[in-house]
Amino acid sequence: MICKVSFVVFVLFLLGSSSNGIPDSEVKSICSKTQNPAFCLSLLGSNPSATIVDLTQHVIDIARGNVSNTIKLISNLIAQSGKNPKAKEHYKACLEHFGEDGALGDVDYTQELLHKGDYQGVNLAAASIADDVDDCISGESPTDPSFNDLSPLPSHAKVIESVVAVLLVLSKSLGH
Ligand SMILES: *[C@@H]1O[C@H](CO)[C@@H](O)[C@H](O)[C@H]1NC(C)=O
């Protein structure tokens, strides 16, 4: 009898742990670890059945959309900077930092690692996305000449950095 009861309890536990999402209070606690909790909460929304893996997937999708949009923007900026070699050089460097060998490739890598369940890897790959974005905006080394960018690119970069900040905190909560 005791054996039967504990089996039922065990099955209920399995059902509970595999289908229940994380409560709003945990989402709040995750977002409180970011610099902009309100942005984080709006990004994660309120989805009672979502697990941390689901939320991480959601944020990776947003990051991919944002990076793709930014690549389009940079391509347009390159096309428009015909008579300004300094601008063209800056935007060409940014295109590399955002492309397959940069931010876009790292977003895909977070996806691959999430599927594999390598949560620490997700965290490291997310950090690389932030580095790629920073390399575009600030240059790869402190001695790089700064470019006074009046295009929407710096504000796109800020959005991506905020999205990545959420991804960093989420991926730290994965597997705990
Ligand atoms: C980033 O993605 C979000 C969600 O899809 C969207 O609302 C926002 O406009 C995007 N921002 C950029 C700069 O692509």
UniProtKB/TrEMBL annotation:
<dbReference type="GO" id="GO:0046910">
    <property type="term" value="F:pectinesterase inhibitor activity"/>
</dbReference>
<keyword id="KW-1015">Disulfide bond</keyword>
<dbReference type="InterPro" id="IPR006501">
    <property type="entry name" value="Pectinesterase_inhib_dom"/>
</dbReference>
<dbReference type="Pfam" id="PF04043">
    <property type="entry name" value="PMEI"/>
</dbReference>
<protein>
    <recommendedName>
        <fullName>Pectinesterase inhibitor domain-containing protein</fullName>
    </recommendedName>
</protein>
<feature type="domain" description="Pectinesterase inhibitor">
    <location>
        <begin position="22"/>
        <end position="170"/>
    </location>
</feature>
<dbReference type="InterPro" id="IPR034086">
    <property type="entry name" value="PMEI_plant"/>
</dbReference>
<comment type="similarity">
    <text>Belongs to the PMEI family.</text>
</comment>
<feature type="signal peptide">
    <location>
        <begin position="1"/>
        <end position="21"/>
    </location>
</feature>
<dbReference type="InterPro" id="IPR052421">
    <property type="entry name" value="PCW_Enzyme_Inhibitor"/>
</dbReference>
<dbReference type="InterPro" id="IPR035513">
    <property type="entry name" value="Invertase/methylesterase_inhib"/>
</dbReference>
<keyword id="KW-0732">Signal</keyword>
